[in-house]
Amino acid sequence: MVGDGVKLRPGTRVAIEGNLFCGECEWCKAGRHNICPFSGQLGQRTDGGLAQFVAAPEYCCIPYADELPVEQAALAEPLSVAVRAVRRGGIGLGSRVGVVGGGTIGLLTAQVARIAGADTVLLVEPHPGRRALASSFGAAVAVTPDEAEAAAGPATGGHGLDVVLDCAGARAATPLAIRLTRRGGRTVLVAIYPGDLTFDPLDFLGSEKELVASMSHSYTSDYPDAVRLLETGRVDVRPLITDRVALPDVVKAGFEALVAEPQNHLKVVVDPRQPDA
Ligand SMILES: [Zn+2]
């Protein structure tokens, strides 16, 4: 159903972009809604999607083609994070790219980097099961963190990595991403972890590297572009979906399973349409 004044027709299939913002501050007015200081998310400041129905503002609702299966459309949000990360990295034709962390965001970022024109993508990931997925997501080489620094040169014909994106969410990953970045290159912070970042500023200054952050996604460009990438089949999210659970099973088969064995799950799709068990 739709509220008063909403232009979307009832029954339209939409992917929900969950970022909320004020629309009034200088960042919102500049189109940078993702860094609005009054931002929030559906499920954070409001009721969320772990329910049969959820109310979302119209601007959060991006219609998508009927041919796109609903469980793939559900991954438009993480894909939009990858789209923004690639944009913040300035990745283009011929870029040599490193991705630290082979979870959902890292694997999608590898795939989007290739679509953006990256020549080579090197994926750094400790878990062998996730490294095994790398080639399906456009990464030519997948190595462990211990192997990464030695692998960057040979993987790029001696050029080095122009852009390295930290998608790991682990303390050791960011310094590694910075070290992996070639002189004059760019490191992009995509993942989140608590605590301080330690690196050698002298090494950083001497090589004139750039360190930039990529926060979530923009609802006006990154998110609609992610939906289009899914509709056109240019990004295949199916290998990321490791679990499908009904809403009543979400705690046991979703959250608890993920906490118990994080390496064995990537995306858990929760289907609110299934009948109560
Ligand atoms: Zn704002």
Question: What does this entry show, briefly?
Answer:
By secondary structure, this protein is an alpha/beta fold. Helices cover 30% and strands 19% of the residues. Among the domains are: 89-213, NAD(P)-binding Rossmann-like Domain (Rossmann fold, 3-Layer(aba) Sandwich); 241-277, no CATH class.
Relative strand content? 15-25%
Q: What is the number of strand segments?
A: 12
Largest sheet data: 6 strands, parallel
In DSSP terms (H or I, runs of 4 or more residues), the helix count works out at 10
Mean model confidence by pLDDT: 92
* Helix percentage range: 25-40%
CATH first level of the domain at 89-213: Alpha Beta
CATH architecture of the domain at 89-213: 3-Layer(aba) Sandwich
Spell out which ligands are present: zinc ion
Q: How would you describe the shape?
A: globular
Q: What value does the Rg take, in angstroms?
A: 19 Å
Under CATH, the homologous superfamily of the domain at 89-213 reads NAD(P)-binding Rossmann-like Domain
CATH fold type of the domain at 89-213: Rossmann fold
**Main β-sheet, spatial strand arrangement:** 7-6-5-8-9-10
Q: Distance between the terminal alpha carbons, to the nearest Å?
A: 26 Å
Q: Which runs of at least 5 residues are low in confidence (pLDDT < 50)?
A: none
Order of helices and strands: EEHEEHHEHEHEHEHEHEHEHE
The SS-based structural class is alpha/beta
What multimeric state do the chains show? single chain
